[in-house]
Specification:
Layout: E1 3-7, H1 13-22, E2 33-40, E3 43-54, E4 57-65, H2 74-84, E5 92-95, H3 102-106, E6 111-112, H4 122-134, E7 142-145, E8 159-161
Parallel strand pairs: 1-8, 4-5
Antiparallel strand pairs: 1-2, 2-3, 3-4, 5-7, 6-7
């Protein structure tokens, strides 16, 4: 099986938002996001995005692997791609995963938010509160600095990162 991760095209955003709507995720906005699509043997199997919040903050989110492709490390491939191909200049990266996914995000340097380390943007705080109201699962508030990503933690797999000119 070959897994490919590529940048989404603008004409795909309506389809992407229809997939996010199915699972009650907030819709994407192509104008301020790096959205990616994962494919297994040319079949779309997952999505993810980096959202520009402001000049110093990004949100890693919308990581969604379709049910029939779970257990194949596709979410790790999506996250790796987004972190490695991130050319945005923001230093803080926030993530709001379900609590059972904590270890998956810790391997990328994410840590539970502590007030004394960095100021949380109001948009992230509001989204975290929205998640806690709208999801049955506990939602974490994680943070990392852009330069805290170790490329040696890349999953060992058969992945191709398509040259996307990012």
């Amino acid at each position: 099986m070959i897994i490919e991760v590529r940048k989404a095209r603008e004409e795909e955003v309506n389809w992407i938002n229809s997939k996010y709507k199915e699972i009650n995720f907030i819709e994407s906005n192509f104008e301020n996001e790096l959205i990616v699509i994962a494919e297994c043997d040319n079949i779309i199997c997952g999505l993810g995005r980096l959202i520009s919040i402001d000049n110093n903050n990004l949100e890693l989110g919308g990581i969604y692997v379709f049910d029939e492709f779970r257990g194949l490390n596709i979410s790790q491939e999506i996250i790796t791609f987004l972190l490695e191909k991130n050319t945005l200049n923001q230093n803080n990266i926030w993530c709001l995963p379900f609590s059972h996914l904590k270890k998956n995000y810790e391997r990328y340097g994410f840590k539970e938010y502590k007030q004394e380390t960095v100021t949380i943007p109001m948009e992230i705080l509001a989204k975290h509160q929205w998640c806690e109201v709208n999801y049955n699962n506990d939602v974490l508030l994680l943070h990392k600095y852009k330069n805290e990503y170790d490329t040696n933690i890349r999953p060992k797999s058969r992945i191709v990162f398509k040259d996307i000119g990012v």
